[in-house]
Amino acid sequence: MYQKSDLRGDSPVSIIGAGIAGAWQALLFAQAGRAVTLYERSDADMTLSTSHWAGGMLAPYCEAETSEPMIGRLGFRSLDLWRELFPDTPFNGSLVVAHPRDRADFERFAKLTTGHVRLDASGVGQLEPSLDGRFRDGLFYAEEGHVEPRKVLPELHARIEAAGGTVKFDCDISAEDLDGIVIDCRGLSARDEQPELRGVKGEMIIIETSEVELSRPVRLIHPRWPLYVIPRGDGKFMLGATSIEAEDTGVSVRSALELLGAVYAVHPAFAEARIVEFGSGLRPAFPDNLPRITVRKNKIAVNGLYRHGFLVAPALAELTLAYVQRGQIDNEVMRCV
């Protein structure tokens, strides 16, 4: 659908929030030739951003188990954009495994998802030698990938500046202070404008060991504490998967025990790993857990990315740019108020 946009022309574009949502908005607008300034309240380390604590998985097939079709549509388009603009992004696929006692949940996951091939025990061992003999079969999603948020965010910021944009850290600014087009990507901080947002806590642990090597994210299916293990290079792994309806930013004892117990179930050698870091981030979510682009005159809010930030942010930025440049509206994602 197309409509006449009040935002077309050569107005400068200001984006608030330099996490994954705002960074992709700034990059695509800068590459389109717009005058772009990206504002971030945190410093360049982005420790106040939810993106700092994210897993960075680009896994639309696996996410289909629990997400709406919209996430798949946006996710598949985002994979194309990651490949096009960041060709070094690892697309080594995802591996899903389970122990025999959790066979029913494994088969349920297989039925709810597509894009996978089944591997027998030998195939799992060939794909990930460290897991040889650990699992009798697995699901391999060859088209999926992953990024390391703490490495790719600085690269995104550098790309924005290379395209002619400006990135300003330690700058807590409001939309009322800015002229031209303002794109609000503040996450939970935007509840002053979007009070229906809620925070969903995602906890993570980073461990380090030289006894296990993985080439791709591995998901362990379990009815109570499903886990993903993401290789971060240099012997480091990120453990995650919790989604807790709470807005504190600590890591609970229960979650730590479950994550560490689950990774031990992936491989006993993880028991000797060194714990490097505990942390958590609050993911911004609307009641339906779906992302939304809201247009109000010269202000555009991009929010509610929930647990899919790195997966859907590129496609959302493309939709915002298409609206500003051509008045194109995606009726499933966009609201004009």
Automatic annotation (TrEMBL):
Catalytic reactions of this protein: a D-alpha-amino acid + O2 + H2O = a 2-oxocarboxylate + H2O2 + NH4(+)
MF GO annotations: D-amino-acid oxidase activity; FAD binding
The entry's keywords: FAD, Flavoprotein, Oxidoreductase
Superkingdom, natural source: Bacteria
Pfam families: DAO (PF01266)
EC number: 1.4.3.3
The keyword Oxidoreductase is assigned to this record: yes
InterPro entries: DAO (IPR023209), FAD-dep_OxRdtase (IPR006076), FAD/NAD-bd_sf (IPR036188)
Names of required cofactors: FAD
Residues of the FAD dependent oxidoreductase domain: 13-320
GO terms classed as biological process: D-amino acid metabolic process
Gene3D superfamilies: D-Amino Acid Oxidase, subunit A, domain 2, FAD/NAD(P)-binding domain
Family of this protein: Belongs to the DAMOX/DASOX family.
Record's protein name: D-amino-acid oxidase
Organism: Bradyrhizobium retamae
Organism classification: Bacteria, Pseudomonadati, Pseudomonadota, Alphaproteobacteria, Hyphomicrobiales
